[in-house]
Specification:
The complex is a heterodimer of chains A (204) and B (644). By secondary structure, chain A is an alpha+beta fold. Chain B folds into 3 domains: 362 residues, no CATH class; 147 residues, no CATH class; 101 residues, Cathepsin B, Chain A (Alpha-Beta Complex). In chain B, strands 5-10-6-7-8-9 form a 6-stranded antiparallel β-sheet, with helices on both faces. In chain B, α3 packs across α12, α14 packs across α16 and α17 runs antiparallel to α18. The two termini of chain B are 22 Å apart. Classes of the chains: A alpha+beta (204), B alpha+beta (644). β3 of chain A pairs parallel with β9 of chain B, so a sheet runs across the interface.
Chain lengths: 204, 644
């Protein structure tokens, strides 16, 4: 009787462990995520790039249902951080007040929402002491939202210039300098010459 | 403490009433422990007398022992001598005999070691000895520049408390009780006075912490106080337990009581309090005569006017006669000499107009006139930099390129708000505190940085920086940190600060290794942050908060807006909420980030805050509850009004 109970308990634990591993493994299968959603993601990047060139800003979704958005509106003297409900009228007023392209930003927000993109921003980095920029897009797809997965953000970096990678696809500092580049404390892997990805436990 | 604190007069009144009842046994249970009135006087004296010195130091930057002793002399001696004459006259009238030694004991204030005339002046002797020791201590601390150091003040008190306790314990358990060996000696009672000194230190130098502590924990503290003060009413005075740890508990209870009372910041305007406050004001004179006048008058009245009356009548006459005679003595002698004192030896001349303001919510903060003291200008700093034509490579900083170094310094002077701690570093505390020198002494900053670059070591104020070789090698090599990559001067600045100043977070990370900029090695906890500003930059820091527990604010908006108006205000916040990095529902609840609050106002129910961090100013609307949730510390920094 005791042995039977022991076997049942062990079987239950084994099943639980298998489930946990299975859930974790499914969420790690992300390499094709970019290719599946390429058009949407690229359009977010291009839309952001265009709007950012006019006036710098960043967009962050603050909640899981993607209903609340936080805008960082950068002016010469101050950065304004405001939080709005999506499609709240107050948001358009604020954008116009500070001279931002409200329709373009609204369109961007809609696209981000559909792609479960939680943050988009421009990051500066320095190569040979020269300033370069990249666009940093953090996605929070539901398929990554498993209870046993810590790294739930799928992050894409769009560079303006082709980058260098080692044989394993890790982003390097320079072609000759075989040193792995870190962006925001993360190492990135190649998707194509200008786009890299990583998984992270934080979206920025 | 420019104004008289009515709370302390009320406590003095309580103390003198206790002492009176100690010497009149109408209520045996009360008389048994009423001697604690003297201990209350001790703590009050320690608090007030040291407060005078601390206040003088805060306002003038120095202490004048001569003036202090003269002013104390005017307060103590005239009334004391007059009272002594009363006693001598009474002895003469009663034909009591006494040796000259007793008079000398009174005059030389050694009546706590050998019997004097009055019988109650032993406590005065202790106070006189205390004045000497206190002044010596304070002058020593001043010379060492330790007077503002919390740790020094605390350790000094702990040492004194342990020595006194040790001596009391040894004596009370090894020898039979005698007042002159077990109760009166200065070395057994100094701890009570120094408890008052410690309380005064926090009241003067850490008012926010003082108020926060005594308001937040007032209920348990008061319960402990009541429990502690019940001990002398339960145990006999000769009980070794009472004489040893008991005395420690008693003065600690009084210290707590005074702290809670002061932090409560109650108004005592009601007319009912006036007589109580007045009695407290005359308590010194009452104390001196209470053993002589009260019993004599009460005895005379009950014999002649109320023969056969109850002891309660005697008690009432005794108390009233003591109070009346004390007031008369105070009016006739004490206050006359105090007026002379103030005319001949006025209080120190204040340099700055200081209003000691206790804000609602118990946050005491002195509001300074002219808080922002700019010691050099941006133009001076730029002119100084322009004169440097060709800066050679430094042998001490091999990876710092001179051109980038100079450009970095110029950027910092031209746009001080652009200082950036780098992404994924723990340098935010150092970047935040740089706000002060870059705005108020840019010339001092560039001179220091250039000296450091050229000589490999440099001095800022009283602190000499001689960075470790690892740090010198690292400066200029930090990469992937955003714009910090091309700012070698900032890398140097952050690295040397982290290398120089250590906190408990450095316990496992005392030395720099590549990558340490993102570890506890570079972390700044709240105490360390305030210490750097205070000791390195020479600012007076009023801080409230801690690394783990959020401070209590009665009115957060009022506190912060006052703070912003009167000094440079740093907030120690939980960055997991301010700049959240993930959507986890449970996030670590501790602060990791420093910001400089430059403005705050109300927008409807929300607060709009303007703050500096990450190389720029941000305006943001936040809910009060959110701000309370993220806020773990507030430091208000004002430039000291004198040069140390």
């Amino acid at each position: 009787m005791m042995n039977k109970l022991r076997y049942q308990a062990l079987s239950f634990l084994a099943l639980l462990y298998t489930c946990a591993v299975a859930i974790s493994c499914t969420s790690l299968n992300i390499t094709n995520y970019y290719h599946k959603h390429q058009s949407t993601l690229d359009s977010i990047e291009s839309g952001f790039k265009k709007a950012y060139q006019e006036k710098p800003f960043s967009i962050e979704f603050t909640d899981r249902p993607f209903k609340h958005v936080s805008l960082e509106l950068m002016t010469d003297s101050l950065t304004y951080i405001y939080e709005f409900a999506v499609s709240e009228r107050r948001m358009d007023d604020s954008l116009r007040k500070y001279g931002f392209d409200a329709p373009a930003i609204n369109a961007l927000i809609t696209k981000m929402r559909s792609a479960e993109c939680t943050w988009v921003n421009n990051l500066d980095y320095y190569n040979d002491e020269k300033k370069q920029s990249l666009i940093y897009i953090s996605l929070w797809p539901r398929i990554f939202n498993s209870p046993f997965v810590n790294k739930k953000y799928y992050i894409l970096t769009y560079f303006s210039l082709p980058q260098y990678f080692d044989s394993e696809g890790n982003l390097l500092v320079r072609r000759r300098l075989k040193r792995i580049r870190k962006i925001n404390g993360e190492t990135f892997k190649k998707i194509n010459d200008k786009v890299c990805y990583t998984l992270s436990d934080r979206f920025r | 403490m420019n104004r008289r604190l009515p709370e302390l007069d009320i406590l003095r009144c309580i103390a003198i009433l206790l002492i009176m009842f100690r010497h009149y046994y109408i209520f045996p249970s009360l008389s048994k422990g009423a001697w604690i009135g003297v201990d209350l006087f001790f703590v009050l004296s320690g608090f007030l007398v040291s407060g005078l010195l601390f206040q003088e130091y805060r306002q003038t930057g120095k202490i004048n022992p001569r003036r202090f002793f003269i002013r104390r002399g005017f307060k103590i001696y005239p009334v004391f001598w007059v009272a002594l004459l009363f006693y001598l006259g009474y002895y003469y009238y009663k034909h009591y005999t006494y040796g000259a030694g007793r008079v000398w004991a009174e005059l030389l204030f050694v009546q706590n070691f050998t019997p004097g005339i009055m019988g109650i002046s032993w406590s005065l002797a202790i106070e006189e000895h205390f004045y000497l020791i206190l002044v010596l201590f304070t002058v020593w601390a001043l010379k060492k520049d330790w007077i503002r150091r919390q740790r020094i003040a605390t350790y000094c008190f702990i040492s004194i408390a342990l020595i006194c306790l040790g001596l009391r314990t040894w004596l009370s358990y090894s020898r039979p009780f005698d007042s002159y060996t077990h109760f009166f000696p200065t070395y057994l009672r100094l701890d009570a006075l120094f408890a008052g000194v410690l309380l005064s230190w926090f009241y003067q130098f850490r008012p926010a912490l003082f108020n926060d502590f005594f308001i937040r924990y007032r209920v348990p503290l008061l319960l402990c106080m009541l429990a502690g003060l019940s001990i002398p009413f339960l145990l006999d005075i000769e009980n070794p337990l009472l004489l040893s740890i008991g005395l420690t508990i008693i003065y600690s209870s009084f210290t707590v009581g005074i702290g809670v009372l002061l932090a409560a910041n109650r108004r005592w305007d009601h007319p009912a309090w006036r007589p109580v406050i007045y009695i407290g004001k005359c308590s010194y004179s009452i104390y001196l005569v209470h053993l002589l006048v009260g019993p004599a008058v009460a005895h005379f009245c009950t014999n002649h006017f109320f023969p056969g009356s109850s002891p309660y009548v005697y008690a009432i006459i005794y108390v009233l006669a003591n109070i009346a005679s004390g007031i008369l003595l105070s009016l006739g002698v004490e206050q006359f000499f105090l007026r002379l004192r103030d005319r001949w030896f006025p209080k120190f001349i204040t340099i700055t107009i200081t209003l000691f303001c206790v804000l609602p919510g118990g946050q005491a903060s002195p509001l300074h006139a002219g808080d922002s003291v700019v010691t050099s200008s941006k133009q001076e700093a730029l002119l100084f930099l322009e004169k440097i034509q060709n800066l050679d490579s430094s042998i001490y900083w091999p990876n710092v390129r001179p051109r980038w170094f100079m450009e970095n310094l110029q950027t910092n002077i031209n746009t001080p708000l652009a200082m950036y701690q780098g992404s994924n570093t723990n340098f935010c505390g150092y970047a935040a505190l740089s706000y002060l020198p870059l705005h108020e002494d840019p010339l001092g900053y560039v001179k220091f940085m250039l000296e450091l670059y050229r000589e490999g070591h440099a001095r800022w104020g009283k602190i000499t920086f001689d960075p470790s070789p690892a740090v010198k090698l690292a400066a200029g090599t930090l990469h992937f940190k955003g714009i910090l990559d091309i700012r070698p001067a900032d890398q140097m600045w952050f690295l040397i600060l982290a290398d120089q100043f250590k906190g408990y977070l450095n316990f496992f990370f005392p030395h720099y290794h590549p990558g340490s900029e993102n570890t506890f090695w570079a972390s700044v906890n709240f105490g360390k942050f305030n210490r750097i500003i205070e000791h390195l930059l020479g600012y007076e820091v009023r801080s409230v908060g801690s690394d783990l527990i959020r401070p209590h604010f009665h009115d957060l908006f009022d506190y912060l807006s006052q703070s912003v108006k009167t000094g440079t205000t740093f907030l120690y916040v939980n960055n997991n909420y301010l700049h959240k990095k993930n959507h986890n529902k449970s996030r670590a609840s501790f602060p990791t980030h420093f910001i400089v609050l430059t403005d705050i106002w109300k927008t409807g129910e929300d607060f709009t805050i303007v703050y500096w961090d990450y190389g720029g100013r941000t305006l943001r609307q936040v809910r009060p509850s959110f701000l309370k949730k993220i806020l773990f510390g507030v430091s208000r920094c004002t430039k000291k009004a004198y040069d140390e």
